[in-house]
Structure to design on (224 residues):
């Protein structure tokens, strides 16, 4: 049973560019959440997708957008990259039961913006 | 701002000793969870405690929750070198949002 997978593992971009990160949830899960984790900090909630819709959003600008596909996989898009967007981006999947559902995290994508 | 704040920020102990980490949060919660993260990789869920529970055990882990003080503690008994990691508490913040603290970095010396 595959867990949560993310691609790519590492990514280097320059300021102003756009990036797309991908996530496949754990089998049987239909909810995907994205987090940004800066070095030495805890993960910060970006948004959550359920039934192909953004269900809740954290305090991130519109440059951060996402998508969920019918097979429950998800993409995170970041436009007009800033140096401060350099971070580990984590995807987590869960069932649709709500906040009490255990989230299973992928290994993350390390994004470096130069 | 972050809902949960862990204390201490870093902890170094000898193998076999117990490790205690604390978490404080600001608003009412439905549940609180603890996660472990090794070397900047994905987080692993350790344990969930609901707001109507006071204590929960899982193997060498013991979690307590005091909703009147808005605090929780994670105790790892008989620590091993493999327990070296960062530990985060996470709370629900209304709706489907999960808020993590800044974490406690635990180093267990062999």
């Amino acid at each position: 049973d595959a867990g949560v997978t993310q691609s790519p593992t590492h990514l280097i971009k320059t300021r102003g560019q756009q990036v797309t990160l991908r996530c496949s949830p754990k089998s049987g899960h239909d909810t995907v959440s994205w987090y940004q984790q800066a070095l030495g900090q805890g993960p910060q909630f970006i948004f959550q997708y359920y039934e192909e819709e953004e269900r809740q959003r954290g305090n991130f600008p519109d440059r951060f957008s996402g998508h969920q596909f019918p097979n429950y996989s998800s993409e995170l898009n970041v436009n007009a990259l800033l140096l401060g967007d350099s971070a580990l981006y984590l995807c987590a999947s869960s069932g649709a039961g709500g906040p009490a559902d255990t989230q299973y995290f992928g290994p993350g994508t390390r994004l470096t913006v130069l | 701002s972050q809902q949960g704040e862990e204390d201490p920020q870093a902890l170094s102990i000898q193998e076999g000793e117990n490790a205690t980490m604390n978490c404080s949060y600001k608003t009412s919660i439905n549940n609180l969870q603890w996660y472990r993260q090794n070397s900047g990789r994905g987080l692993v869920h350790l344990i969930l405690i609901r707001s109507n529970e006071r204590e929960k055990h899982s193997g060498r882990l013991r979690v307590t929750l005091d909703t009147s003080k808005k605090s929780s503690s994670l105790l790892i008994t008989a620590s091993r070198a493999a327990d070296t990691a960062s530990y985060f508490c996470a709370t629900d913040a209304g709706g489907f949002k999960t808020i993590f603290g800044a974490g406690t970095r635990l180093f267990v010396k062999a």
